[in-house]
Amino acid sequence: MVPNQNKSLQVNHNENNYSTKNYEEAYRRSLEDPEGFWAEVGSVVDWYKPWDKVLDNSAQPLTDWFIGGQINACYNAIDRHIKNGKGKKIALIHDSPVTKSVKNITYDDLYEKVSLLAGALVNLGVVKGDRILIYMPLIPEAIIAMLAVVRIGAVHSVVFGGFAARELSARINHATPKIIIAANCGIEPNKIVRYKDILNSALDRVTEKPKNCIIFQRPNMEPSLLTPGVDILWSDALSTAKPHPCVPVEANHPLYILYTSGTTDKPKGIVRPTGGHIATLCWTMSCIYGMKGDDVWWTASDMGWVVGHSYICYGPLCAGLTSVMYEGKPDRTPDPGQYFRVIQDHKVNGLFTAPTALRVIKREDPVLEFGSKYSTKSLRTLFVAGEHCDHETLIWAGKTLKVPVLNHWWQTETGHSITATCLGFGHNLNPPMFSAGLPFPGYDVRILKEDGSPCQLLELGRIVVKLPLPPGVMSCLYNAPERFINTYFNNYIGYYDTMDAGYADENGYIYVTARDDDVINVAGHRLSTSALEDVILSHPDIGDAAVFGVPEITKGEIPLCLYIKNKNCSKNEEEINNEIVQNVRDLIGPIASFHLCASVQGLPRTRSGKTARKSLANLASGKKVMISSTIEDPLVYMNIKQVLQNLGYAKNAPDPEIE
Hints:
30% helix; globular; 5-stranded parallel β-sheet; 7-stranded mixed β-sheet
């Protein structure tokens, strides 16, 4: 489909209090003078050799940035700060309630361990361009491994520690790593996850074995048995190595491969270019997040996800900040006051988390019995992303933490924000309700109909971005060039297809309502699941909710809501059901055909905080559901199946099975 080549969203920012002249000028230049604008952004990091050309857009949709420039990500994350006299500064704070330990790691400490591990990898025959797979929990050694890999020009692929052998083997088969770096175990609130056993099982399945595996045995935990001739202890690898210097790479050399979740049969590996990515990330730490100097930054995520790559590791470290790594849960390690404690103990200035974590804390500690024990006065701003944040949770978090709560939107593919409220540009800290911010420089965001014609303001459509894409986004899918083009660029020619649905307002703000396949079509009317969830979550007795479509003979499909009641809720389920049905009728209208709702014990959330709505819809429709190993608690499906059957759905559905 060839979209109508309409101009960028035409709005008058000067007549509102949301935008600023600095933002308007930067955004305009990023689209009209990309070479000049991004050359300035590129200068925030250090280069061994300047680029010959800022932009090569001759083979769209492929775009190269900073062509010919020589750079190293590890140098920018560690070495340059030490050369500037900041070696004693704390780079990482590892706060681990599951091991009852806190560890501070300086930039000097990082340099010592990273350079030795880099030397160990070279001793094992690793050269520039080799793939190294990392399978570790949220521990400092995961970041040390990542930085050691890129220090020598190799390419890391971090696999989320919660993945089982089947998913892990698929990624090993696809990436064909020369070396695997793994921990012996991960620690959950009620169990030990034996990574080494999972790795052994995965290696039994793969067709091309790695040369060696470097195994980090976690302190005070039962050590794993090593495989003779293959496994090498982390400590032994470092003790026999010499520090290795950084190896310069061309700006478009791959930094890493990151596999998106749910792609076991056909792994989809996002390839990230080095130069544009670390330059943009470094800039966003001040431009979007307002971090500077001695600020302490905390991204509550995992290294297996893009948020961990961008904003636990590369962004804050390249900017010379202190980055917090929290190995725990929002509520169960040991209580729902832990986010407040971490902010107090480490004087956190900026926090980035998923809305799910906030909903869990709100549900489990509604009167702040635990949270009120701690002071959060150091915190200036809270950022949320990863899924839709309902207004009720956003307001609660702002009042509780007494800071602006800012929603922004980005994807694994982009590596940083597509839309945001940017502190560095002086954006209004009270953006319009439900918005995800203004388009970030470099993203020419459009809202299109299925036929490619432009949507009107406030009209729901497909969110796309006019090419070229800015520096730092994915350069390709690993070993899948045709799939790369077909997935992202063939639906709307000349545009990147985000596959998200949303709309724009008269002030230029973007509203992301759902993945486009989460939109429910009720008798021809497209309804966003997030809009319905916003209304439902405004009920004071509901702590979490998921809305999805179920079959209906006359309307095609209608919405069904499963929700979790707050602690200390005194109302019965029938009362709550009647009230939320009425609320939806009042605020959305009869058009929603909303009357199906029920309380459940839990909802299927991935460890990155996303709701597995599609699996719920499939279960309700009687289809077989395979539970991804990224789901936090697979047992919730059995209760959900029973509840759905009580509502007249999932009658002949087989029991969900774990992949």
